[in-house]
Every structure is written in C-alpha cells, then in structure tokens.
Amino acid sequence: xxxxxxxxxxxxxxxxxxxxxxxxxxxxxxxxxxxxxxxxxxxxxxxxxxxxxxxxxxxxxxxxxxxxxxxxxxxxxxxxxxxxxxxxxxxxxxxxxxxxxxxxxxxxxxxxxxxxxxxxxxxxxxxxxxxxxxxxxxxxxxxxxxxxxxxxxxxxxxxxxxxxxxxxxxxxxxxxxxxxxxxxxxxxxxxxxxxxxxxxxxxxxxxxxxxxxxxxxxxxxxxxxxxxxxxxxxxxxxxxxxxxxxxxxxxxxxxxxxxxxxxxxxxxxxxxxxxxxxxxxxxxxxxxxxxxxxxxxxxxxxxxxxxxxxxxxxxxxxxxxxxxxxxxxxxxxxxxxxx
Length: 339
What we know:
By secondary structure, the protein is an alpha+beta fold. The chain has helices spanning about 10-25, 80, 115-120, 140-160, 165-180, 190-200, 205-215, 220-230, 240-255, 260-270, 280-285, 295-305, 320-330; strands spanning about 30, 40-45, 45, 55-60, 65-75, 95-100, 110-115, 130, 310-315. Strands 1, 2, 3, 4, 5, 6 and 7 form a 7-stranded mixed sheet that branches. Helix 7 packs antiparallel against helix 8 (about 220-230) and helix 7 (about 205-215) runs parallel beside helix 9. The longest helix is centred in the middle third of the chain and has 23 residues, at about 140-160. The protein is elongated. It starts with 11 loop residues before the first helix and ends in an 11-residue tail after the last helix.
C-alpha cells in the first residue's frame, strides 16, 4: 500500500513501522525532548504488534542516564488519554512518548519526543542502503569492539533490574560456559568439569570483585581484573578464565562501576594483549592484526553482524563510539538501578 502524502492520513500502525526504522537509522542522532533534555536511542528494541506499548526494551540515553524501557507512538499527545493508557498496567514501563504533535501536557512519568513530519515521511517507504566495512580502518574496528561490550552490558542491565547480583553472575557464567562447551574442538573440559566449575562461581573471587565494585570498594578495577586473571577459580586454564571474565564478568562490572570505574574498564579493554590468535578470525580477516583483545572482539562482532557477507544491511544497530564516550564523561553514572 502506497503511503499518503499527508502523513497524518496514514494508519498509526503504518507510522509505527516508519518510526521504528527512523530511530534505528538515526541511532547516533541526539534529539531534543519537550523537557529540554537530550535523547539518544541506542537500540529500538522490539516492535510490538500485540496489545501493549508499541516498542519494548528500547535502549536510550536521556541526559546521560542509560534507560531500558518501553515507548509508545501516537499522532498527538492527547491520544494517550484518549486510549486510556494510564489505566492499563501494561503501559506502566513507558518512559518515552513519541508524537507528531504535542497538543497537551500530560502528568505522566515519561518524556515526550516530537518527530519532524517530513523526516518521518521519508521512512514510510524506506529501503535501507547497504554499507561496507572499511577493513583498513582500526577506528572502525574499535567501534565494533565497543558495540560488543555495550550490547552485552545492555543485556546484563535488564538482568540486574530483576535479580540479585549473585544470580546475575551465575546466569551469565552459565550462558557462556554452555556455549563454550558446545563449541567445536573443545576436548579439554568435559561436561562434569564444566558443571563443577560453574558450582564454584557463586562464592568465588568473581563475585567478590563485582560486589566490591557495587560498593565502590577496593583497588582500581583494571588492577583487580588482572588479579582475577592470575588466580584460578577451580582448575581451569588461563584462556578459559580470560574468556569467562571477558564475556560474563566484564559486562556486569561495567554496569555496576561508577564513571572512573567505567573508564578503568575501558582502559583495560583497549590495552589488554590477546592470549592467542583465533584461526577463524585469521581466515576471515587475514589483514587485521590480533595483537589486542579488542581487535579480536571487534572482528567477532563483525562476524556476528555480517556473517559470511562483506556487505551489511544497515538496519543492524551500531553504536557511535564518540557519542558513547561522551555520555561516559558525565558527572553522574548513566546506569541506575532500583533500590
């Protein structure tokens, strides 16, 4: 169906899809909200075609605070009351109201974003262009390495809002160790050893490390990460311990750390030398060095996004490196948790 030239004549469901595509494409754009706060949508989450808010688990920065919540779209602000959303518990987690016209101030605990009509109209029949990765640009690779850390941090953020720290650590470790065990060519550890290893984690130095970050206690975060690498948790080798810390522990630490701690984690992330070279990365990207951990992480994220293709559909979400560092530089922690 061809969209109407008058954007308000289009069905709201049709406009929702355009809003989703627009915010996904403009993920590195800073919007001004009605409250004069600044918004950056890091991930548009999931478009909900069923009852409830239009978008679930939208990841956004609002004046530097990292928020994962729902968003709702209407043509007018007053449609919120017209649809009686305030009386429906399913809309309690809406933190962003997206509208074309702000015709009424509402007494609700969410921010309001007014979209430009013409800008949205451009996305009604939007076909994303294909982009090609610059394999000679280490700066571009660094963006993908940061995206990998940020993506995992977002997933952990949702967990920390629902579960205690110890359970989040166990879940993250279990998810990683299960994937590790089912990799090809992993004869070193059998299933019993993996299970025994996992049982040691809840009361291990990994939990102590995270608890100290939560309480803002202890030495510098980077020094403590290096101490974790030096001490066995069970009877695992260095490489498995490094991968477990990188994939399961570091995202939790990044969520919990204050601003100086986040910088410390990033410093470790950028400066840590690699333990060994991955043959699959060498075969896929023979011209990219594997001297540092972040280079390998960037290539792994490339493989996750691109697969076996050299071109990537731009509806994949990528995070702007400079924008992310700027929000880390704010005076308050961007990650907030309920008390």
